[in-house]
Amino acid sequence: MVGKIIERGTSQSLPDFAKEVLFDPLGIDAMEWIRGQDGVPSAASGLRLSPRSLARIGQVILQGGEWQGRSVIPKSWLDESFQPAAIVDIGWRGMHYGYLWYLGEEAITDKTGTYGERFIAAFGNGGQRLFVFPGFDFVLAITTGNYNSPDQWMAPAALLFDVFLPSLTDT
Questions:
Q1: What is the pLDDT of residues 45-73, one digit of tens each?
Q2: Separation CA 7–CA 16 (nearest Å)
Q3: I need a surface site. Which of 68, 132, 136, 168 has the fewest CB within 10 A?
Q4: What is the 3-state secondary structure (H, E, C) of the chain?
Q5: How far apart are CA 38 and CA 131, in angstroms?
């Protein structure tokens, strides 16, 4: 549905629009759009990017929509899209959904105690994950290929909880 709205509003195909306004400004030239049986690029689960390219999108979020001093995404749109619009149950307590982003807090324990660290995330089929932790100035991009599997969350979760988050805190 979102892809169709973008196409109607811009008079461009979703891949062409994304290339022009997002991928080209970020220097992302390698991407793949999977098409559904109807031949239409899948906006919900069809974009494939390298971890480095996915991380660039996360970096733009950290920088308030800017890349190399140029506004790529209006900050006002990012601020609006990061407002909770719905509570979701995906096995992560307190997770909300904004405009196409998952929003939550992760309990972090360091030498000062335990506190909630806000994050913004995108979850794709197969275990693709983008985590943005503004308080840590940290982006984690994970791409895996465990498509359509109920345990696709396990590898990204292990990387996030067992490797990266512990390395960001002073314990």
A1: 789 999 999 999 999 999 999 999 999 99
A2: 9
A3: 68
A4: CHHHHHHHHHCCCHHHHHHHHHHHHHCCCCEEECECCCCCECCCCCEEECHHHHHHHHHHHHCCCEECCEECCCHHHHHHHCCCCEECCCCCCCCEECCCCEEEEEEEEECCEEEEEEEEEEECCCCCEEEEEHHHCEEEEECCCCCCCCCCCHHHHHHHHHHHHHHHCCC
A5: 31
The pTM is what? Answer: 0.89
Amino acid at residue number 141: A
- Please tell me the distance from the alpha carbon of residue 137 to that of residue 122, in angstroms, as a whole number: 17
